[in-house]
């Protein structure tokens, strides 16, 4: 299906994701399966301007594309049965694969995983939250720091059967104040690779060109300036960030 058809062909709803905080629908455009989040279904938040979450989802996709990391499924704005909203290509994760896990502490894998935090469950059992130590999740952690993602839950990472990892649900991103909340804290203060730094450089350069013009339609000037500042700061430190605000560092619930 052509890009123009994705924008104009009929969007037919086929179901609703009832566990989502905002109105979220499954649908199809022809034979293409999509997720549709109408702006009219967004619940007001105390810290994000009302009616902007769909725009932030599209902005996250544009940043992902500029980085060249294919982290966010194709996302765009268009009209739908409940008005304008965010539409995103549906991705079917592998139910047997999980990029983030909560395990009993005595059952932790020997390698290939990073510990985020330890605690106790409702029965007093020691448990550990951990995530994959993989190039895909490293890039996602950097992406989250750049877009200031305030809600990277474990279930917002889709583990595909081919090993690829997609990130979804980026409505709570791009705030001008530090709000990074994520389950991907496994690389705190570790060096960012040259390849990863190249991606940040690409984003920085693009912000002064066409990407900046596109994002200006979706974000406020203050938010756009803060994005550029985060690019500069991450490039200068050359390290994965640590929690820096008084906000909780991990979203709740974590899944």
What features would you highlight for this structure?
2 domains; single chain; 6 helices; 5-stranded antiparallel β-sheet; alpha+beta
Descriptive account of the structure:
The longest helix is centred in the last third of the chain and has 17 residues, at about 220-235. The relative contact order is 0.15. The chain is α+β, with helices and mostly antiparallel strands and about 260 residues long. It has 2 domains: about 5-95 and about 135-235, no CATH class; about 100-130, no CATH class. Helices cover about 30% and strands about 20% of the residues. The strands form 3 sheets. A 5-stranded antiparallel sheet has the order 1-2-3-5-4. A 3-stranded antiparallel sheet has the order 6-8-7, with no helix packed on it. It has a two-stranded antiparallel ribbon with strand order 9-10.
Quick structural summary:
It contains six helices and ten strands, in the order H-E-E-E-H-E-E-E-E-E-H-E-E-H-H-H. With 255 residues, it is an alpha+beta fold. The mean pLDDT is 95.
Poorly predicted runs are none
Largest sheet: 5 strands, antiparallel
Q: Order the strands across the largest sheet as they lie in space.
A: 1-2-3-5-4
Strand content: 15-25%
Shape annotation: globular
Topology of this structure?
Elements: H1 3-8, E1 11-16, E2 25-29, E3 32-38, H2 53-67, E4 75-78, E5 85-89, E6 100-104, E7 113-120, E8 126-132, H3 135-147, E9 157-159, E10 165-167, H4 194-207, H5 210-216, H6 221-237
Antiparallel strand pairs: 1-2, 2-3, 3-5, 4-5, 6-8, 7-8, 9-10
């Amino acid at each position: 299906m052509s890009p123009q058809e994705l924008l104009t062909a009929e969007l037919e709803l086929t179901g609703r994701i009832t566990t989502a905080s905002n109105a979220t629908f499954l649908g199809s455009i022809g034979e293409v399966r999509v997720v549709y989040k109408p702006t009219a279904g967004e619940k007001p938040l105390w810290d994000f301007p009302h009616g902007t979450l769909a725009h932030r989802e599209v902005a996250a996709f544009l940043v992902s594309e500029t980085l060249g990391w294919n982290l966010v499924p194709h996302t765009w704005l268009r009209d739908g049965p409940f008005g304008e909203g965010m539409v995103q290509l549906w991705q079917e994760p592998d139910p047997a694969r999980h990029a983030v896990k909560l395990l009993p502490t005595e059952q932790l894998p020997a390698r290939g995983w990073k510990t985020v935090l330890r605690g106790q469950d409702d029965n007093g059992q020691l448990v550990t939250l951990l995530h994959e130590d993989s190039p895909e999740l490293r890039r996602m952690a950097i992406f989250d720091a750049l877009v200031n993602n305030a809600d990277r839950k474990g279930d917002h990472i889709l583990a595909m059967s081919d090993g690829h990892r997609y990130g979804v649900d980026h409505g709570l991103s791009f705030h001008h104040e530090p709000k990074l909340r994520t389950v991907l804290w496994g690389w705190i203060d570790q060096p960012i690779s040259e390849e990863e730094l190249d991606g940040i450089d690409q984003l920085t350069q693009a912000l002064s060109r066409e990407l900046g013009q596109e994002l200006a339609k979706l974000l406020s000037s203050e938010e756009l300036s803060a994005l550029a500042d985060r690019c500069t700061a991450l490039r200068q430190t050359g390290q994965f960030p640590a929690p820096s605000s008084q906000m909780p560092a991990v979203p709740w619930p974590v899944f």
